[in-house]
Amino acid sequence: MSLPPAPTFDDVRAAARRLDGVVVRTPLLENARINARLGGRLLIKAECLQRTGSFKLRGAYNFLASMSEADRTKGAVGWSSGNHAQGLAEAARLVGMKATIVMPADAPALKIANTKASGAAVVLHDRVKESREEIGMAIAHKTGATVVPPYDHPWIVAGQGTAGLEIVEQAKALGVALDAVAAPCSGGGLSTGIALAVKGLSPTTNVHAGEPAGFDDLARSLAAGTKQKNDKLSGSICDALLAPTPGDVTFPLALRLLGPGLVVTDEEVLDAMETAFREFKLVVEPGGAVALAAALSGKLPVEGRAVTVVCSGGNVDHATFARALRRHAP
Amino acid sequence: MSLPPAPTFDDVRAAARRLDGVVVRTPLLENARINARLGGRLLIKAECLQRTGSFKLRGAYNFLASMSEADRTKGAVGWSSGNHAQGLAEAARLVGMKATIVMPADAPALKIANTKASGAAVVLHDRVKESREEIGMAIAHKTGATVVPPYDHPWIVAGQGTAGLEIVEQAKALGVALDAVAAPCSGGGLSTGIALAVKGLSPTTNVHAGEPAGFDDLARSLAAGTKQKNDKLSGSICDALLAPTPGDVTFPLALRLLGPGLVVTDEEVLDAMETAFREFKLVVEPGGAVALAAALSGKLPVEGRAVTVVCSGGNVDHATFARALRRHAP
Predict the structure, then answer these.
(1) Interchain contact, A118 vs B330, CB within 8 Å
(2) Could you tell me if A160 and A277 lie in one domain?
C-alpha cells in the first residue's frame, strides 16, 4: 500500500464524518478560578474522556474505516505499549475486523488486559532482545494484515485532527475566538492534525505542540528547520511522549502549521495533573498534561487571551497519580 | 415570600431555558469494558464536570434567576459547608448579585477559599456552639436578603431537574431507551428534580435515589410512606449526603415519582470512586459516587438494561481520593 498524499483540511472533515457517533465529542471545560489566576480564558479539551481513555481511537478508527474492504478482511497489526494499542484494538472491534497488537511482555498488566478486552490478539515480546517492528512486520507479511502506525500516516493525522474541528466549533458556541491551541506531542500526529483543522477554520489562531524536557525533538526540529533526535529513549514521567524524532508525514506539516514548541519539566507536569484533579475533576496522565502544564506555568501565555489546551489521555497508574496528589497535600 | 406551588415538568423546562449557556451540558459517558462486565449499558452523567464541581449551580442559579428584580438587589444568603456554598456563591456572581454564605469555621480551607473566590461574603460560625440557620436568618432579617435553601424549594428542585432533561436527550442521541436513572440523594432536590424531568419525557423509565448506609432516611421513608429520620448526623464518608430527613417539598415528589431507594456502604463507594478514576477518568467525591456504587455492586441491576447514574460532584480532598486508589493498587 503506497502512502496517500499529505493530509488536508478536507481530509479532517471527511474523518469527522466517519467518526460521527463513534467517538465521544469530549467537552471543552473552563474554571473561573483558574481563569482569574491566569488573567485570561483557559479552555481544556478533555480528550482523556474519549473511549479507551485517549485520543488514539480517532486516528486508528479513521485509518481502519479508510481501508479497502479487501484489506480489511485481512486484519490490522500494530505495536505499542500504551494508548495506541488500546485505541487500535477498540477501533478494530468497532469496525468488526481482526487486530494483532505486539506489546512488550513487561508492559503494565492492565494495559495488556485492556487491549485483550477489546478482542485483539496480543503478541508479547522481549523489549530488550526482540524488535517489535520486526515481529509486527513478520505478522503483516505472513497474514496480509495492514500495519497501522501510531502517528506517521495521513489517515492517522486526519483522524486526530477531528479533535481540532471540535475545539473550534465548541469555542465558537461559547462565543470565544481562540488566540492559541496547544496539544501534547510525541510523533506529532495529534498536534499536526489539530493544526490542520484549526488553521482551516481559524487561520489566525496559533497552534503549538508541547513536549517533556529532554524529549523536545520537535521543538528543536522546528527551531532548526530540520529533523532533530532525542538523546534518550526513556527517563521522563511522560511515558506516552517518547518518540525519538518527528515523523516523515508529520514534520512537513509541523514546519508549515505550528508555532514554537513548548517544553515542560516533570514537576510542571505533576503540578498540572494535580490542578486537573482539583479544579477540573479530570484524571490526566503525565503525557496528556504537558500542554496544560505549559499554560499553567506561563510558558504558553494565557493573560489577556483565550487558549485551548488538549488533555489528551487519562491512562495513568495509581502510584503516579498519587505522586501528583502528594505534591499539594492540603 | 410564600412558597411557590410544587414544581412540575414545565418548571424544569423553564429552568433549562434560564440555564442555557450558563451550566455545562455535562457529557454522558460509557465504557465498553464496564458494559461487558455488567452485561448491559451503564451511562455516567458526569456532573462532577459542572462549574463549581457539582450540580448545585443548577438549582442555585435557577433560584436567583427566578427572583424578582427588587428581591435580587437585596442579595442572597445561604448556609452550607460544601457544594451548595460554592454553587450559590458562583450563581450569585454570574447573576450579578451579592451573596452571604454562613460556613463552619472548621470547614476545609479550600472550600472556604473557593466560596470567597466567587465573590461571596463568608461568615464563619462555631459548629458546636452556634446555629448556622439562626445566623443566616438574622442576616436575612437585617438586610432583606433572600434565603436560598440547599434543596427544599420548588425553584431548586426544578433547576436540578435540568440534568434529567439532558440525560434523556443525550441517551436518545445515542439511540438508548433508558430503563432506569439513579442519582445521589441527601435532601432529595437532585433526585426528585431528575425524576420530574425523566418521567415527563420517558414515563416508563424508573428513577431511584441512592444513599449511604446509616443515612438512608429517604429509602426508609419511601418504604414506610411517611418521613423517617436518620439516627446519626455524621459518620459516613459521604459528607455531602447527611441531611437528616426528606424535605417538605421533595418528599411528596419522591413518593409519587421514585422507585425503591438504593443504599450502599462506604466500601462500595470507595470502589466506585476507583472505577470512575480507572475506567472513566473522572474525579468523583464520595457522596457523588453512591448511584455508581449501586450499579457496580449490583444493587441497581444493569444486566440486560440501559441505566444512567449521575456522578453528582467531584469536590474531594487528596487524602480521601488517595484512600480510594489504595484499595486497588495494582
Answers:
(1) no
(2) yes
Out of A32, A314, A330, the one facing B109 most closely (by C-beta) is A330
Q: A156 with A59: CB under 8 angstroms?
A: yes
| Domain coverage including residue A251 | 9-54+153-326
Percent of chain B with pLDDT over 70: 98
Q: Is residue A310 part of a domain?
A: yes
The confidence band for A66, taking pLDDT boundaries of 50, 70 and 90, is very high
Identify the domain boundary among B144, B167, B186.
B144
Q: How far is CA B157 from CA A150, B7, B23, in A?
A: 48, 7, 16
Whether residues A114 and A192 share a domain: the answer is: no
Among A47, A281, A326, most B C-beta atoms within 10 A, so best to mutate, is A281
Contact A49 B93 (CB under 8 A): no
Mean pLDDT of A176-204: 97
pLDDT of residue A2 exceeding 70: no
> Is B135 strand, coil or helix?
helix
In the predicted model, is pLDDT for residue A243 greater than 80? yes
Q: Is this prediction's ipTM beyond 0.90?
A: yes
Cell numbers standing for residue B176:
438508548
What is chain B's Cα-based Rg? 19
Inter-chain CB proximity B49 and A110 less than 8 Å: no
Question: CA B180 to CA A131: how far, in whole Å?
Answer: 50
Of A31, A319, A330, which has the smallest distance from its Cβ to B110's Cβ? Answer: A330
B113, B144, B175 — which closes off a domain?
B144
Interchain pair A314, B281: CB under 8 A: yes
Examine the domain organization and report whether A232 and A90 are in the same domain.
Answer: no
